[in-house]
Amino acid sequence: MLRHAATIGSAALIDSGNGIVTYLLIKAGHIVAVFVWTGGMLAMAALLAALRPVEGCFLLPEARLLEAARRWQRRAITPAMLAAWGLGLTLAGSGHWFAAGWLHAKFALVLGLSALHGLLAASLRRVTVKDVRKPSAALRLAPAGLLGAVAAIIALVVLKPF
């Protein structure tokens, strides 16, 4: 027996048995992964924007914070990005949304966020491992770009305008 999944916030038809529970678990996992990923990126961007080396080097507490941020980026933020992609593609497939215009726009924005993630991770690595003491000035715009992209993605997913 199939029932319309509009009752669970989807346009797809889902099996009325365990399929709905599975869909909801995947959706919840996707949302959690996106929160961890984007929240971690926002923290990385804020940290990189706030860096102020003293006489060309960082103070010990600042260096420890940078190293902890780099570990967190490798252990939590990057895996969350990969989970968000995997679970998101699973949701798109189960909802048969690959032809939807709103999803194409969302993919473009998520690709941009993935590129920004790479830039932030590389900047964090350069600041902690190499002798680069000041990240690119362009990264000061990263928090605003990140928040704008996330807001646009939320609007696309909720409104599905096209």
From TrEMBL:
The record ties this protein, via PANTHER family, to: PROTOPORPHYRINOGEN IX OXIDASE, UPF0093 MEMBRANE PROTEIN SLR1790
UniProt name for this protein: Protoporphyrinogen IX oxidase
- Membrane topology qualifier: Multi-pass membrane protein
Q: Species name for this entry?
A: Thauera sinica
- According to the UniProt entry, what is the EC number of this protein? 1.3.99.-
Q: What keywords tag this UniProt record?
A: Cell membrane, Heme, Iron, Membrane, Metal-binding, Oxidoreductase, Transmembrane, Transmembrane helix
- Catalytic reaction annotation: protoporphyrinogen IX + 3 A = protoporphyrin IX + 3 AH2
Q: Cofactor note, please?
A: Binds 1 heme b (iron(II)-protoporphyrin IX) group per subunit.
What is the required cofactor set for this protein?
heme b
Q: Where in the cell is it found?
A: Cell membrane
Q: Which family does it belong to?
A: Belongs to the HemJ family.
State the pathway, as annotated in the record.
Porphyrin-containing compound metabolism; protoporphyrin-IX biosynthesis; protoporphyrin-IX from protoporphyrinogen-IX: step 1/1
Main location class: membrane
- Tell me the function of this protein: Catalyzes the oxidation of protoporphyrinogen IX to protoporphyrin IX.
| Taxonomic lineage | Bacteria, Pseudomonadati, Pseudomonadota, Betaproteobacteria, Rhodocyclales
Residue ranges crossing the lipid bilayer per the database entry: 29-51, 80-99, 105-125, 137-159
Domain of life according to the entry: Bacteria
